[in-house]
Amino acid sequence: MAVSEKMRNFSEKSSWIRKMFEEGARLKAQFGHDRVFDFSLGNPDVPPPPQFRQVLKKIAMDETPGQHSYMPNGGLPWVREAIAARMSAEQGVTIHQNDLLLACGAAGALNVTMKTLLNPGDEVLILAPYFVEYGFYVDNHGGVAKMVQTDDNFDLDLAAIEEAVNEKTRAVIVNSPNNPTGQIYSAESIIALGALLEKAGSRYGSAIYLISDEPYRKIIFDDFTVPPIFQHVRNSIVLSSFSKDLSLPGERIGYLAVHPEADDKKALLDAMTLATRILGYVNAPALIQRVVAELQEVSIDCSIYSRRRNLFCKILDEAGYEFIPPKGAFYLFPKTPIADDVLFCSYLQEEKILAVPGRGFGRPGFMRLAFCTDEDFIRRSADGFKAALAKALS
Digits of tens for pLDDT over the chain (394 positions)? Predict the structure, then answer.
């Protein structure tokens, strides 16, 4: 067999999101796109802000030699400077361009970080429910992803985290606003987590880094705010992308920043720069680096997602589902009315509704619904949600 045993196993257990995406393609071919309610994929559909096209056209027309050449692996210095200035205001800590690197999306930034931190067998704590690819990214670099559940409100369970930390722990990944729950971790819980990791790092003789994955930072609702990690945790790494707040997921542009006072900062950044090259990224795409440098204070219209959230919550509430309204991102994570979330998602499929079982995110008994879709589409799914729930409880 040409394919490795590990990849065969991964393929068999691979993302529930991808499985539902493929099921969606089948149903759409059979019944038509407008009759299948696909809430499976977090693919932003809100158009990029108008400034994006203006800047893109201007930069694309620039015929200055070298616009598309190789560059420093960490990215164009003046682009890093623009991001550092915005992050300094956002994080409440002065960040310099040399504290950060451009990356091929947040996924590229996470892989660079894992390559830098992990020796074979080292552990990274991932907090369930979690983004489905975290386990694969850790494994890519010889590490072991160790799952720790959040509490009933999807908040940090500090006691569970403390119990899971040991001499092999190298990092904890937090994702806030969270995919799939939309939860935002409070400043108090982040401060407590930072203190916990600082104490454990001293005990085991090696820093344990808090990695904050923040692609949804600007997609928040009501009066909620996302705490600045750098202001509260010294041994921390913040990484993100422009996939969500500029609706550019296909352009694969992101970044990572190391706290200016983190332990071994220079060694970390040197290794991250090397990792960017030897993992085959070489550098983040040149054209889109130049574009996002001019869009640091620009974002999509979050009110669109806010209206969709409110509509979806109303539909699910009236149908009788239990859920916690999301504070950010563009997902709902309701409890399934029966314990078997896969079975319940099959009932939804019979109503031509596609949802992702919660077990794919490390939390069985729930399901993820992405509201990156038109409001009319959400509205027309209401009867299907009611019918599936009735069938499950009959």
Answer: 688 888 777 776 666 666 766 776 777 777 777 788 999 988 999 999 999 999 999 999 999 999 999 999 999 999 999 999 999 999 999 999 999 999 999 999 999 999 999 999 999 999 999 998 999 999 999 999 999 999 999 999 999 999 999 999 999 999 999 999 999 999 999 999 999 999 999 999 999 999 999 999 999 999 999 999 999 999 999 999 999 999 999 999 999 999 999 999 999 999 999 999 999 999 999 999 999 999 999 999 999 999 999 999 999 999 999 999 999 999 999 999 999 999 999 999 999 999 999 999 999 999 999 999 999 999 999 999 999 999 999 8
Q: Which of 131, 134, 157 is nearest to 144 (CA)?
A: 134
Residue with structure tokens 């923040």? 214
The DSSP letter of residue 234 is S
SS3 188: helix
Tokens of 319: 């149908």
- Local structure of residue 104 (DSSP, 8 states): S
Q: What is this structure's pTM?
A: 0.95
Domains of the chain (ranges; CATH) run 5-48+300-393 (3.90.1150.10), 64-293 (3.40.640.10)
